Sequence to fold (242 residues):
Amino acid sequence: TLTGDSAKVMNDDEILKILSGGVYLNAAALNYLNERGFGEFTGFTVKKSIPADARENYTDEKINDGFAFGFRNCRQAFFHGDSFALTPTADDCRVLSELVDYHGKVLADCACGIFENSLGGRICAAGYYPHSWISDYNKTVQLKRVFTWLSKYELPSYVTTYCRIRNITLTGDGRQCVTLFNTSNDDIGDLSVMIKTSKLAADVYLMSGERFSLECSEKTDEGYKCYTISNLKPYEMAVIVT
Fold:
């Protein structure tokens, strides 16, 4: 993840290495990389700032399955900034959202998009509140899908349930150890996590000392298995080992 001028401390080789992997860019970082001469690898340019009345409208892209044409409203009247129109610079750029005003008028054809460059790197450029006011179910789903895409589906695990949870995953020797900590004051029911593993069963350890086996309930084409814990109490932890 690059923000603002954070790449200023990097030399060209370091930047090229980053752009050969997976990168999530806000508008300022995108602008800086383009000005420095890396535009052919970013896929987008910053067209203009949109200071007021913009809402994010999700496009009919595969990553947005289930919430295409939905809206995210970050209330610019109260929380100024972080709203930019982007322009795709390659034919294979995929636009994930546009910006519209409160009357449905299109303010920007592209506010967020993804691109795979000639280095083999994957880029997501996000021009609308990329790091703030994300408390929207659809946006959290989109971001999880974007980051697994950026990683080329090599993220070891991610939580699919819409909840406040801390996930720390350790990997080694072909095994995964996923630690889930409920950081909220509420019970979390049906807590589901996708784990990159070939195994169809996992061992679960609870803070009470209880240990049990859990069968995966769902599989994806990218090699993830879904494991669901029926309930996790406030400030309790569960460890899933595959």
Notes: The longest strand covers residues 106-116. DSSP finds three helices and 17 strands in the chain. The radius of gyration is 20 Å.
